[in-house]
Amino acid sequence: MRWHKRLLVAGVTGALALTASACAGGQVRGAGGTPEPAASSGGQPAATPAAQANDSTFVYAPNLDVVTDWDPATSYSNELVALQNIYEGLTRYDSQERKAVPRLATEWTSADGGKEWTFKLRQDVTFHSGAKLDAEAAKKAIERTIDKKGGAAYIWDSVKTIEAVDPSTLKFTLKYPTPLDLVASSAYAAYIYDVDAVDKDGKSDAGTGPYTIDSWQKGKETELTLKAYEDYWGGWKPEQYKKVAFRVTPEITTAWQLLQKGEVNFVQRLNPQLFEQAGATPDVQTASSPSFQNLLVLFNTAKGPLKDARIRQALQYAIDYDGLVAALKGSGQKASGLVPEGLLGHVSGMEPKQDLPKAQELLAEAGYGPDNPELKLTLTYAQGDEDQKLLVTLLSSALKGVNVTLQAKPMSWGAQWDLGKKQGQDIFVMYWYPDYPDAYSWFLNVFKSEDEPQFNLSYLKDSGIDAQIDSLPELTATDQLKADQAYQDLQKEIIQEQAAVAVPYVQKYSRALTADVEGYVDNPAYPNVVFFYDLKRKS
Amino acid sequence: MLRYLIRRLGQALLVVAGVVVLTFVIMRLVPGDPAVAFTGPKATPEELAAAHRRFGLDDPIPVQLLDYVRDLLSGDWGISLHTKQPVRDDLYLAFPASLELVGTALVIAVVVGIPVGVLAARFKTKFPDIGVRLGSVLAVSIPVFWLALALQLVFASTLDWFPIAGEYDGELDTTSPLTLWTNITIVDALITGNWPIFTSTLHHLVLPALVVAAYPTGVIAQMTRAALIEEGGQDHTRLERALGFGETSILTRFALRPALNPVLSLIALVFAYSLVNGFLVEAIFNWPGLGRYAADSIRSLDTPAIAGVTLLVAVMYVLANLVVDILQGFVDPRTRAR
After folding, report:
1. What is the rounded CA–CA span in Å between residue A514 and residue A512?
2. Which terminus of chain B is more exposed, N or C, with fewer CB under 10 A?
3. For the complex shown, is ipTM > 0.85?
């Protein structure tokens, strides 16, 4: 055989071998269908007469895998966006009203100082499996979630017993007072589902929500499609979207081009430059709103030079808050206190300001500053986070002027946290967000005394503050006005008196949508979630 | 030939073993606790301890290495920390699309690179040669992400000649569902006669494959040119010239065969390189391959997944080299003796 013939044979054999090795054996891909979005070529939305059936697909462009866990009990990742449209909880949080509003429960009451909660369930609700929702089914779902102990199941830690009093009444008895209406509105682990219909392979689902799984193709570009659940208790109007697709688009620039072409309808994040461009682009609309995630600059109150409260206060004054927010170009807004806007306990008028003379004065009192010995401080922050890097750069240069040298180390979360648990730094920078829409999360986790620090990385130990924190859940459950006041007092104590933390900014979401979508409202309690049922296509 | 094969196979296994040890060491050298990445940033000490036990992170390092090798041999490549699925299953889903992209790119590189190299050698130091040399230097040195973004912006976004992103039109899953045999879309579409998906995939492949092909085309053209020019100075070429063969005939009929030997080795080298180089291209064109998986894994510090991708790429590199070595053994018996 001549050499080139041999080469050809070898090549064909190789190709066949590779083919055989990857053999998947005759499965049909995408049987559920992967519909295209609205026929709006070149970004021109097609005209739809008023109340005409909306047969277009709403296409969401996430930058990461859509689903990593289909179990509503343990899910604790990006699939939140899909699951919040497939599953529902007893309540949903309304960030405008700063309270939980009805969802599968129509009304609820609490008694015994927030230790007993009774929820009345909505009638005529069916699961996608066909089963009927009643108190017994809801009880089973929450109990299964608690038993699984995965994801955010700990939100139910206060629950002692659950009782299905009658088919439409669910009663919780708690170990300690907790605002259970807020817990039930959590973004994770609060889903009510048919325990007998959970399918971890994503072929079907067990929810009651407006949408159900159409197809799931792990690893594919159009990873997930959803279709309307025809028997949804809320009913359907012609102009609502009946089909939803998730098209994974890791690159922001690609997402932006797809949006301009009308090939996707929603991009969950744009960088500041593209966001500005989007604002001036016809056929595209933008939405920007603050999240529930803020940046905490935690000072080591337990050891090292920052044990002196005056130096901590000096550091608070040294941060260029306005400069930082300006440099963030819309991806952050100045924080006012520890609790972000939209949550009970938010205080307005607590926005900090840079005051370098005051910082210098405080440092001088503590024996540092320009005419005194140099002060060296170590700081750890998240590797790869450009916003945090910006803070560090600005703080570092401001401190240089007052004879303070900042040794900043960018680290992976695991390494930074390990070091933090050993009190290995003077300043720890991290984001915090609540698991359910309750400001208590910041105080319980970050500022309550801990013998072995987990998230109390300012190492604050103050029995007075602990007592105030302990009183918060009962107040939230029984007297919201008093709770609001208690949160305000605590924030003043922790930020101004103790100077344990500086809060430079709250992250902001920069969304972009095609102009033909109506009804989009960002709800920071459910990060990146679009409630597709609330949307309609403009006529 | 058998001894040659055994020797080459032994060397390949040695390289793979080295890579296994290296990936394990790197996994353990990365600062931070893998259990934290698995359990999430707000894990309780109990959950962390459970994750430690599950992944054997409390065992001594040599024991962990032995367990890792034993698991690998039994087909267990670990559990991905971000998808919570077996890494092997994840790779099985992602790899075929990458193979499709890089395979197409290499076909382009060979089909374009070799003739262009011959052309440059034929017209050495003349205009075509200068053009080819300039072109190939450009193809090799342009950053791949820049080229991808530029082609996407010009040919997809502005001119609308090609799709912006994706592997094929999503709506074809409804109108013309594909039956999977190999998981490589274009191959499956071809063998099942699914022409709508076949043509759509080809259309979607053009831009990303051209971008991935830029580097290999450049080096293959350069190498072919250099090897042919070297062959031009050999005794046999002088004899052929004396016998009255024309320059083109000498190059294509007599010089090309021995000159292709180093080119073949080069193809094996650029295959693995293109696989990794293609990761960025995959991200820009939403190509559902290893690139997206690797990027997500790196972003979430998913060490088992990163190790899995590394190992797979290393194995592919070794395999490609082995195949070329064997082919060279057939093509040129002298190599068997080396």
Report:
1. 7
2. C
3. no
Q: Check if B125 contacts A (Cβ < 8 Å).
A: no
Cβ neighbours, 10 Å, residue B124: 14
pLDDT single digits (tens) B97-127 = 999 999 999 999 999 999 998 888 888 888 8
Q: Centre a 10 Å sphere on the Cβ of residue B181 and count the other Cβ atoms it contains.
A: 18
Q: Given CB atoms, is A257 within the 8 Å cutoff of chain B?
A: yes
Number of structural domains chain B divides into: 2
Q: CATH code for A211-289+509-537?
A: 3.40.190.10
Q: Which domain holds residue B104?
A: 95-332
- Scanning A422-512, the segments in alpha helix (DSSP H) are 440-442, 463-478, 480-491
d(CA B124, CA B334): 29
Residue B1 sits at the chain A interface (C-beta within 8 Å): no
Return the CATH fold of A291-507: Dipeptide-binding Protein; domain 3 (3.10.105)
Chain B residues closer than 8 Å to A445 by CB:
42
Contact call for B183 and A263, based on CB within 8 A: no
Say if pTM beats, i.e. exceeds, 0.80: yes
CATH T-level topology, domain A66-192: Dipeptide-binding Protein; domain 1 (3.90.76)
Q: Could you tell me if A10 lies within 8 Å of chain B, comparing CB atoms?
A: yes
Residue of A nearest to B264 (CA): A7
Looking at the DSSP bridge assignments, the partners of residue A87 are none
Q: Model confidence over B247-298: pLDDT tens digits?
A: 777 777 777 777 788 888 888 888 888 988 899 899 999 999 998 888 888 8
Measured in whole angstroms, how far is the alpha carbon of residue B238 from the centre of its chain? 39
B295 and chain A: CB distance < 8 Å anywhere?
yes
CATH number at residue B178: 1.10.3720.10
Q: What's the rounded Cα separation, in Å, for the pair A174 and A162? A: 9
Comma-separated ranges of CATH 3.90.76.10 domains in chain A: 66-192
Half-sphere exposure of B93 (CA within 13 A, CB side): 17
> Own/partner pairs for B157-162, CB < 8 Å, 24+ apart?
B157/A257, B157/A260, B157/A261, B162/B203, B162/B204, B162/B206, B162/B207
